[in-house]
Amino acid sequence: MAPRSTRSSKKGPLPRTRVLAHADAHAILKCGADPASLPYMVPKLGHRNLLVEGVRLYAANILKQSMLSIGGDVAVHRNVINGRVEASDCLIMGDLRHYRLLVDKLKAQGCVSDLAAAIEGQVFREEGTLSLKLCGRERSWDRTPLIMGILNLTPDSFSDGGLWSDPSKALEHAVEMARQGADIIDIGGESSRPGAPEVNVEEELSRVVPLVEKIALKVGVPVSVDTRKAAVARAAVAAGACMINDISALAHDSAMIEAVRDTGAGIVLMHMRGTPGTMQAATGYDDVVSEVYAFLDDRVEQCLDAGIDPCSILVDPGIGFGKDLQGNLRLIRAIGEFSSLGVPVVLGHSRKSFLGAILDTPVGEREEGTDAVSAWALLQGVDVLRVHDVKRACRVRETLLAIRGAS
After folding, report:
1. What is the DSSP string of 143-191?
2. Where a domain ends, among 123, 144, 163?
3. Is the pTM of this model over 0.85?
4. Does 353 map to a domain?
5. Is 86 exposed, middle or buried (CB count within 10 Å of its CB: 0-12, 13-18, 19+)?
6. Of 75, 93, 123, the domain-final residue
7. DSSP assigned state of 285
8. Active-site residues: which are they?
9. 238 with 223: CB under 8 angstroms?
């Protein structure tokens, strides 16, 4: 099974495409379309919507006319028709039948074959399997989303601070999570709750590395380490970890990107504003989905430019990290759009404060809310769920996969 990644550097031939899970009139107008077209186009937004950015004038005209000829539509800049723009963003609207016919039409015209490939790769993406390259080894799973079990070794984490600070109890919990069905175990030695202080390198190393060594020997699933520090990342990989989960998306420590490249470890790039100590001081966005998407797109590109294998990269929109309640909910509602980045998507939502705000419950009573988000994320195509309760997440996954697979 080849690693599933549709990502390549933007220096390559494919246009940037993005599936819009919930497009509206604003999305049409952002392409530069004439407002007078809204009464005709808005009713078509109930179909599958694909945004293709920066399409050259000749290709935008071909795309528009091809889609109209088969019963779909494309929102383009109002000046495409008179040739007064060199390029236009294009919002394609159609169902799967339209897209299949469109791809065939575009392939028949060699001058837009790259556009056909980009559309086909987004709309007809294979689902249900996932492969990653982790420290030079290909790991494959045939059931998604993967369940990433959280193992915090910190005394001050928001949900389970202090529960697993005893190394023997932490090891027992890791073994139990693997038995319950965890596909990955994510170990953290520094709390990232809002307001948390930074832990020094020596303390984080002493918490993480000895346990990674024991888990890697005793537990037969990949081990991830939640860290922002290159020294911790390198030591953890040397001890047996094969994935790094960096809440700063490699921005906190300038040596981190080289550490990831040199070790070949998988890397989860997460969006966060500021640091855990400051992130909730700035939670306003003009468009939280587009801004988080653009940030992650840029960070993936930087990894590719640094020589990191695209099949080793994952992204996480960072629920609760520099977002307010509505920002978190908008990101979850549109989580399916992040698959358009061409790398697997991780969602860390378990027991977080936005669930407490919705349900008016303390941290220990948010499992039903966690389950609801897990179910939504599965249906939207998320690749990895990062959770505290592995057993519950696995049961949610197996139930929904059974329903979806029923004939």
Report:
1. SSSEEEEEEE--SS-TTTTTTT-SHHHHHHHHHHHHHHT-SEEEEESS-
2. 123
3. no
4. yes
5. exposed
6. 123
7. -
8. 352, 386
9. no
Which tokens in the block code for residue 315? 């992204």
For β-strands 87-94 and 243-246, DSSP reports them as unpaired
Distance separating alpha carbons of residues 319 and 382, to the nearest angstrom? 14
Nearest partner of 386 among 270, 275, 287, 218, judged by Cα: 270
**Whether residues 21 and 67 fall in one domain:** yes
Q: Which three-class secondary structure state does DSSP give residue 244?
A: strand
Rounded CA-CA distance 56/74 in Å is 14
Helices (H), 42-95: 57-69
- pLDDT tens-digit series, residues 142-167: 999 999 999 988 875 555 555 656 88
Q: Phi/psi at 102 (nearest 5 deg)?
A: -60, -45
CA 348 to chain centre: 10
Look-up of token digits 């890791």:
174
Residue ranges making up the domain that contains 353 = 130-405
Q: Are residues 114 and 228 in the same domain?
A: no
Mean pLDDT of all residues in 280-300: 91
More confident residue, 235 or 152: 235
**Residue 216 contacts by C-beta under 8 Å, 6 or more apart in sequence?**
223, 239, 240, 241
C-alpha span between 349 and 345 (Å, rounded): 13
